[in-house]
Design brief:
The chain is an all-alpha fold and 286 residues long. The protein folds into three domains: 91 residues, no CATH class; 80 residues, Serine Threonine Protein Phosphatase 5, Tetratricopeptide repeat (Alpha Horseshoe); 85 residues, Serine Threonine Protein Phosphatase 5, Tetratricopeptide repeat (Alpha Horseshoe). 72% of the residues lie in helices and 0% in strands. It has 15 helices and no strands. 36% of the residues are buried.
Length: 286
Amino acid sequence: MADSMNYKALHQLMQNRLDDGSLYILCEYIKFDAPAANNLDSSSLEGNGVAIKSMSLIRYCRQRQILHTLIENLHLVRPDMVGDSYTAWLTWATAQDNPQAPAPIIPPAPPSAAPILSPAKRRLRDELFEELYPELESAMDGRDWDMAISHGQEILALKPDHQPTKDKLKVAYCVRGIGYRVQGMYEQALADYNQAIRLDPNFAFAYIDRGNLYLAQKQYKQALADFNQTILLDSNFASAYNGRGDTYRRKGDRARAIADYVRALELGDEKQRRRAEQALKELGVR
C-alpha cells in the first residue's frame, strides 16, 4: 500500500531535500524532457543537469511508492507545468508506484492558476473571447476539426475554465482522432484521444475510440482497460461490449467474448446488433 501524503507534508519534504535551484531544474526537466521518463535512470537525470538533491528526492519517493504524489504536486509549485509532458511523467510515476496495475488512464492536466488581470487586460481578454467563440462554433458546425481545435485552444488560453469550450474541444479531438485512426495514423489518433480524455476524464466516447485504436494495434491489455472504463461510465454502451467482445475473442477467451456479444445484442441499435450477431455466428453460437 502506497503511503498517503498531503501537499503540506510533501512541500515540507521538498523544502528539506531541495533548494530552489534544484527544484527549478527538476520542474524544467519534467516540463520539457518528458519522453525520457520512459527510460528514466540516474545517468539520464544527472546527464541533463538535475541536481543530486533532486535525484535523492526521486529515489526517496520511489522507495515509498509516493512518486506519483511528488509529480502530481509539483504543478502547485510551478502552475505553468501542464500538458503532455506533465501527463507523461505522471503516467510514468504512477506505473513506478504500482507496476502490477493495468495501463493507467491518462489523467487530466492540472489547471493552471488563473492570472490576476488588470481591468484593461480583462477587457481585452473578454473582447478576444467574444471574437473567437463564434469562430469556434462555426468551425464545429462546418466539421473543420483542425480549425475548431485551434480556436478552442486559443479560448482556453484566455479562459482555462470555460466549460462550453472544453465540451466542444473534446468532441473535436475525438472526431479528428477517429479520422486519424481510419487512415492508419495511430500516433496522431492516440494524441487526440488523450487530449479529449484530459479535457473530460468521464468522456465515454473517447475511451471507446481509444480502445478501438489499441485493439487495431493488438494492444489487448490497454484495449480492455478502455472498454472497461467505457462500460463503467455507461453500462448501456453496446459498442463497448462489442469492442470488449472482439478483444476477448482475439485473446482466445471465447466464453467472455460470447457474454459480451449477447449483452450487445440486448442493448444495441440495429448496427450494433448486426455486429454482435455476426460475431456470434462466427463463433458457432447462432
